[in-house]
């Protein structure tokens, strides 16, 4: 049994990437970095720098995913997408099972340490300096993160268009970054990393079965 997606590839890509990125980013290290920076600097500057970094990593990730599509025979691509989705889902569910209480607090602590280290070199007060600080910290933290892997894997699925994935991924990043700089303290204390991992795992299982259906059809 597969979970039906909208027939329009662009709409399906937008909805899938928006949902996946929003779940993956909430409670992530980059979420807490934006939260901490917004408490110390102007929220608008933090949002600009953080979102620019996430957009840059998104373009890199989509490029990698689409590169895999182009390099491999088209008959293999749906099988690859299914394998990546299901493998990623199993990893998320396994991580959720062994996750300890207070995982979100640990992410916040690591984010705060990174921000403190960056700001220990001198006072950051100008708009350009704040934007650059947010960009650099978030860009480095996002590389190799589960959100980047999710974006790469989504881009391997033939059912999803580049435009739809780009729009959905950027919308998800913009939403979570806006929440971080605007209501991060309230949200951060109510996040259950275990629940988010399980929801993400379930979502990628659905993507995996959908890709299997495409491969077999």
Any key phrases for this structure?
217 residues; mainly alpha; 81% helix
Describe the structure.
This protein has 217 residues and is mainly α. The chain has one domain (9-216). Helices cover 81% and strands 0% of the residues. It has 9 helices and no strands. The longest helix is centred in the N-terminal third of the chain and has 29 residues, at 43-71. 43% of the residues are buried.
Write the layout of secondary structure elements.
Blueprint: H1 9-25, H2 29-40, H3 43-71, H4 77-98, H5 103-119, H6 127-142, H7 146-156, H8 162-188, H9 193-216
Helix pairs in contact: 1-7, 1-8, 1-9, 2-3, 2-5, 2-6, 2-8, 3-6, 3-7, 3-8, 4-7, 4-9
Percent helix: over 70%
Please describe the biggest sheet, giving its number of strands, its sense, and whether it closes into a barrel.
none
Tally of distinct domains: 1
Total helical elements: 9
Q: Supply the helix-strand structural class.
A: mainly alpha
Radius of gyration: 18 Å
Number of E-type strands: 0
Label the overall shape: globular
Order of helices and strands: HHHHHHHHH
Strand % is under 5%
The unreliable regions are: none
How far apart lie the N and C ends?
Answer: 14 Å
Mean pLDDT: 84
């Amino acid at each position: 049994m597969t979970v039906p997606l909208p027939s329009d590839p662009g709409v399906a890509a937008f909805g899938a990437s928006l949902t996946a990125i929003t779940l993956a980013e909430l409670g992530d290290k980059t979420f807490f970095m934006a939260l901490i920076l917004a408490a110390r600097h102007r929220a608008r500057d933090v949002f600009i720098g953080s979102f620019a970094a996430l957009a840059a990593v998104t373009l890199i990730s989509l490029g990698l995913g689409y590169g895999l599509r182009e390099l491999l025979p088209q008959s293999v691509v749906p099988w690859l997408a299914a394998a990546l989705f299901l493998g990623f889902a199993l990893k998320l569910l396994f991580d959720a099972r062994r996750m300890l209480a207070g995982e979100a607090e640990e992410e916040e602590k690591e984010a705060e340490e990174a921000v403190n280290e960056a700001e220990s070199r001198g006072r950051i007060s100008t708009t350009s300096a704040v934007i650059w600080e947010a960009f650099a910290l978030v860009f480095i933290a996002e590389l190799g993160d589960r959100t980047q892997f999710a974006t790469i894997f989504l881009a391997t699925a033939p059912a999803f268009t580049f435009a739809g994935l780009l729009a959905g991924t950027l919308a998800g990043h913009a939403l979570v970054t806006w929440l971080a700089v605007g209501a991060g303290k309230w949200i951060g204390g109510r996040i259950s990393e275990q629940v988010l991992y399980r929801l993400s795992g379930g979502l990628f299982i659905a993507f995996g079965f959908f890709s299997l259906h495409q491969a077999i059809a």
